[in-house]
Write a structure and sequence with these properties.
The protein has 265 residues and is α+β, with helices and mostly antiparallel strands. Helix content is 39%, strand content 17%. The chain has 8 helices and 7 strands. It has a 5-stranded mixed sheet, covered by helices on one side. A two-stranded antiparallel ribbon has the order 1-2. Strand 3 and strand 4 form a beta hairpin. Helix 1 crosses helix 2, helix 1 crosses helix 3 and helix 2 crosses helix 3. It is elongated. The protein starts with 14 loop residues before the first helix and ends in a 9-residue tail after the last strand. The N terminus and C terminus are likely disordered.
Length: 265
Amino acid sequence: MTHTVREPERERESPRRRALLDALRDAGTPLGVTEIAERVGIHPNTARFHLDALVTQGAVEREREESSGPGRPRTVYVPRRGMDRGGKRGYQLLARVLLSQLAATGPDAEPAALKTGRLWGRHLIDPAPPFHRVSHGEAVERVAGLLSELGFDPAVDGGDGDPPHRIRLRHCPFLELAEEFQEVLCPLHLGMLQGALAELRAPVAAIRLDPFARPDVCLAHLSPVPAVSGVVGPRGRGQDGADGRVGPADHGGAVVGGDDRPLDQ
């Protein structure tokens, strides 16, 4: 589930659009094209072109001016209400602040990261249709699709009749943070895998994540687990009253690292 916010960054790339936006903000009242052009010292057609671009970017709003006289209401422009959405963002700094606080909790950091990852994994994966049992292969394919959307560039290992047993993560979308906070960020990734598989009530679990098993690859290890008993209902609920929050992928024993076997095993 992806949410995007339209960010009018580009008006800062053009000094003329920056000047138009500043003129609107300084005016404190809606202005027509001619008024704005006069304040900035440009032709009205040029002003209209840049104002239309600012409207598209979301920095400016176009309105119809109320008029008590005859004739067509005039089109006026006002700066977008609220804080300016242009300018620099600092999300990586925010992530470092939060990860450093989590890492500072000591022995509780890894379990907390795993738990958080599992909750988000459940949230991010699309659930299986009602009354549908997800197979080992389908579950791995679905989870690999999620990892691809998140930017991990996954490659599934398996074939020749054997079920998939490992996912190679060939890119980390949080690489710099993972290098600095591996002890919490990698368990978070493992937890996301576990949560996604649990939401699918899949007969396969993510049991271990080997960070940087090779300089360009992390390895997520998978293992078959017994299928959940009972008839699968909506969102994986069984007739035994299970609510879908404990599934095969939630079993204990999952770890990050701890295996030095060669990559080709």
